[in-house]
Amino acid sequence: MGLLKAQVGEGIAILALLIIVLLYKNHDPSASPNLFISHLHTYKLRMSSEFDTGIDSHRQSPAVRNITLRISSEFDTGIDSHRQSPAVRNITQPRVALCLVGGARAFELTAESILRHLINPHDKDWDPDVFLHAPLDSDAHKFTLLENISPARLASARIFVPELLPESVLYQELLYGGTSPNGIQGLLQYFHLVEGCLDMIDQHEKRHGFRYDWVARTRVDGFWTGPVPPLSSLNASNYYIPIGSQFGGLNDRFGLGNRNATVAALSRLSLLPFLHGRGLRKLNSESAFRAQLQELQIPSETITVPFCILSRRKYRWPLERADDVPVASIGTVGPLNGAKCRPCTPAATGPEAEQAASKLAKRWGWPGHVRGLALCDGSGDWEENWEDVYAEAAGRKFENQRKRVLSRTREECEADFLRFEEQWEAWDAPPAEQICSRQYSR
What we know:
The protein is built from 14 helices and 14 strands. Among the domains are: 212 residues, Spore Coat Polysaccharide Biosynthesis Protein SpsA, Chain A (Alpha-Beta Complex); 85 residues, no CATH class. Helix content is 35%, strand content 14%.
């Protein structure tokens, strides 16, 4: 009886998703977004009730209680999607939400590039409201490096105390954690981080009575060397991801799309039972991402994006196997599309680097064609003079602020955090004393 109940619950949820897919496919993206959304108000996917039926998937996890597929009646309000918020803007300007996710372990090295190229890029079509979703750890104090943003654009921040998520039989069958540093638990924690963006964006939209046109999501350990492509050059019907670093699926280190496509793309945790019900098994993060877009028939397109992921992980060098992972130098000229990187004296440049990268499988760690590609020997620790290499690539303007954050006293940290908290419209985090104390207890 319990198994039958579980199958019926899963069938209902899948049927609801299929109805949503059909509606999405037949939707004219040039029409009012509210016309599409108004048809979906009866098809909320409440994972906590549909799947709490004998399958031990979500019932113990507070992070996934009452999860809904947010292409729903939450926005069926008749309000124009461009309605002005308290911050006065050009009515023809697209509304953009930028969600930063992840641990701040390298944020002292990436914050300035994010500020310069993602938050303040001087693009008339790109004036994002900023959302931050991050775990509390010994590096969380570094987030005060964002305090140079105009307070009007700091929409919502959530710094949460991480909890283990239950690794149910469903998750063990569906996911493969062999390539994740923390196995299946690492995947679940990452999916929780990503999906948390939707909650905060939903709440902000409800408070102000508008709906975002575009939502971008990226990791806080990304080092940026330029802005994203102009929104005017993109098709609003597609969900955009970087080329390369596909690892058997789709690159999930950055995403940009319209509000409806973003729901499908960021619902990483709540869609896992749906993927399991479709018969999918042993997926890593990238292949699970590809599966959820394909199963929901959300069109995706690759673009060139100028950032890389700073990493201290060690990878084999020289590159010999098709599944090796390249580590690029942050001094590489061309866009790295989310490839792993570090500040290094390159071990291969020019034709030698291109030849090494050409050995990689295009559905795995292949970085794509990168102008001026420079590769590091990623098999060891960062080299001793990495700070000089970093300063040369990133510029020395940020050095004093970076060093101050790393060397400040606990009292200075707490004062900075109290001031930082006041700049956000919505703030959900432990007290400043608790955040700053982690820096000194490690």
